[in-house]
Write a structure and sequence with these properties.
The protein has 151 residues and is mostly helical. The chain has 7 helices and 4 strands, in the order H-H-E-E-E-E-H-H-H-H-H.
C-alpha cells in the first residue's frame, strides 16, 4: 500500500526537530539537486545490476559527494543567480560540508541512499562558497536575451 504524502513527511519533520541547523527548504534543495545531477547533468554511475533501482520510472545512478556539490552549485546559479549564496545561507547552508550533513541526515531517515564507499567527509571543502557562488557567477547572453535591445 502506498504511503500518504503526510506519512512521508513525518520522518523529515522529526529530523527538522532533532537537527535545527537547516531549514526545510535546504532539504528540498538538496533533494532537487540530486535529481538535477542525475536527470539534467547525466551525472552518476549506474548501480551494479544486482543493486539497480528504479524510482518514478527512471534508473537511479550513484552520484558522488563532490559531483553532487558541483550540481548543487549549478542549480543554485540557475535558480537564484547572484543571490545564491544568500539564499542558501538563509536555510543554514554555508559550505559544501553542510551539503554533506544534509545528505547524511536524509540517508539516516531513508530519503537518500549511499554506497559502501560514501563518506560524510567526501563533501568537505569541495569548493569555497564565496568563490563558486559569487565570484565565479557569469551572466550569460541567454540570461540577457529577454532584455530589449538598445538598437
Amino acid at each position: 500500500m502506498p504511503r500518504s504524502p503526510a506519512a512521508q513527511l513525518i520522518p523529515l519533520a522529526k529530523l527538522l526537530a532533532e537537527d535545527c541547523r537547516y531549514k526545510f527548504e535546504a532539504y528540498q534543495f538538496v533533494g532537487a539537486g540530486l535529481e538535477y545531477a542525475q536527470d539534467v547533468l547525466g551525472l552518476g554511475k549506474p548501480a551494479p545490476a544486482r543493486k539497480r533501482r528504479r524510482e518514478a520510472g527512471r534508473d537511479i545512478r550513484h552520484v558522488s559527494g563532490p559531483e553532487l556539490c558541483w550540481a548543487l552549485r549549478e542549480l543554485a546559479h540557475q535558480q537564484y543567480g547572484l543571490m545564491a549564496k544568500l539564499v542558501l545561507a538563509s536555510w543554514g547552508i554555508h559550505s559544501t560540508s553542510d551539503f554533506g550533513a544534509i545528505v547524511f541526515n536524509l540517508i539516516r531517515i531513508g530519503k537518500m541512499s549511499k554506497s559502501e564507499n560514501d563518506r560524510r567527509e567526501d563533501f568537505d571543502n569541495v569548493f569555497d562558497f564565496e568563490q563558486a557562488l559569487v565570484r565565479d557567477y557569469i551572466i550569460s547572453k541567454e540570461a540577457e536575451s529577454c532584455r530589449p535591445s538598445s538598437h
